[in-house]
Amino acid sequence: MSRPRLTISTFGDITIRVAPSGRFEARTRYRDWDGQTRQVQATGDTARAAERSLKSKLATRYLQQPTNTSLTPDSSFEDLATYWLEDIDMENRISRTTRNLYERNMRTLVLLVFRSLTLREIGVARCDHFIKQLAKLSHSRAKQGRAVLRLALELAVRHEILPSNPMDHVSRLYREPHLPDALTAPEVNVIRAAIAQWESAADHISGPKPDGQLGAIIEVMLGTSARIGEVLAIRRRDIDITSAIPSIRLAGTIISRNGEQTFRQDHPKTAESRRVVALPTFTADAVRRRLANAGSMGLDDLLFQSRDGTPLTTANVRRQLRHVLGGAGIEGVTPHMFHRTVATAVNANANIELAAELLGHTDTKITVQHYIQRSELVNPATAALLDRAFAKDED
């Protein structure tokens, strides 16, 4: 049997020849991630089989690179968005709720505009225009869109797909200064009266009668500054109502996600905001009444719960509050308003540091910007100071 004649052909940068063994051999030179250029080869029964085998080897070597991604500057932004979400899931550092929010904002705000663009086409001017157009519709949308677009492009930079993040150079977002809404003491008492009237069931027609939980929820918010989710997550074990100074430990929040049952999360909005809050008399009294009405409770039972023993959702409590107050002609009151009301009262009667501590904030700037209603009244002590400084000479 005669030896096969040697033949050589080239497919792009791949050279294919018939080896002495009779099999086809494909070769190429490949620059590895460490910068070294090496020869890689593979064999097959046909030229195409050898070529496929070689390309498979090259793909395996590529996946061993540090970035572990097949994305390039010519990849679509949609591919980057998918890869970004997969990377978030792999790291598993943020809450499921935040992850779902990121995905929603990416899908509904950013992908609508950037889906078909390649990564190399996304520059500062395009990003800047996008954020400004979003801001015309809503400052909140612009802020949310900016956040997820920045994070996705940041991943592309970190994995050396892009040289820099164009979002680092877009214009800052501006909005008109917003003064937090806070209730006055008379307004709080009007709200209390409206809820008490509804809970008395004097005008009740049909359906389950009010169980007194809404009024108690409001009193706990007013006495602790807790967010509505934190209040609904209070367990029997978190309540100390027998000590000389009654207190509640705020150590969780209620989470509701689409397609999932509502559940209690074992920390508040942030893990650092766990805190024990001393209760004013009106809150302690409301908690005692609630415990008496609830009857026997296990240590892990929620202070506020549905008739089936399941957690109350924040959406249902907000809806019920709107319904009750709307029936009394009171509009625009939200649970978060009580959060601001308490912060404003503590700041006015003590200081901003105490208000921030009560709200579970680590930075007083957040408290000032979002939770304290600024008073227009300047300290009247200035009048006495100016009298002493510029008093007229007596004739």
Keywords for this structure?
395 residues; three-stranded antiparallel β-sheet; 3 domains; Site-specific integrase; four-stranded antiparallel β-sheet; elongated; DNA polymerase, domain 1; hpI Integrase, Chain A; 9 strands
CATH topology of the largest domain: hpI Integrase, Chain A
Taken in chain order, the helices and strands follow as: EEEEHHHHHHHHEEEEEHHHHHH
Unreliable stretches covering 5 or more consecutive residues: 1-12
How much of the polypeptide forms β-strand, as a percent range?
5-15%
Total beta strand runs: 9
Strand order of the largest sheet: 1-2-3-4
- CATH architectural name of the largest domain: Orthogonal Bundle
CATH class wording of the largest domain: Mainly Alpha
Main beta-sheet strand count, sense and barrel state: 4 strands, antiparallel
Question: CATH H-level name of the largest domain... which superfamily?
Answer: Intergrase catalytic core
How many domains? The number is: 3
Assign the structural class, choosing from mainly alpha, mainly beta, alpha/beta, alpha+beta, or little secondary structure. Answer: alpha+beta
Structure overview:
With 395 residues, the protein is an alpha+beta fold. It has three domains: 8-62; 77-169, DNA polymerase, domain 1, CATH 1.10.150.130; 185-370, Intergrase catalytic core (hpI Integrase, Chain A, Orthogonal Bundle). It has 14 helices and nine strands. The protein has helices at 47-63, 77-91, 96-114, 124-137, 139-158, 185-199, 213-224, 228-232, 281-294, 314-327, 335-349, 352-359, 364-370, 381-390, and strands spanning 8-11, 14-18, 24-31, 37-44, 239-240, 247-250, 253-255, 263-265, 275-278. The strands form three sheets. The protein has a four-stranded antiparallel beta sheet with strand order 1-2-3-4. The chain is elongated. The protein starts with 7 loop residues before the first strand and ends in a 5-residue tail after the last helix. Mean pLDDT is 84; it is low at 1-12.
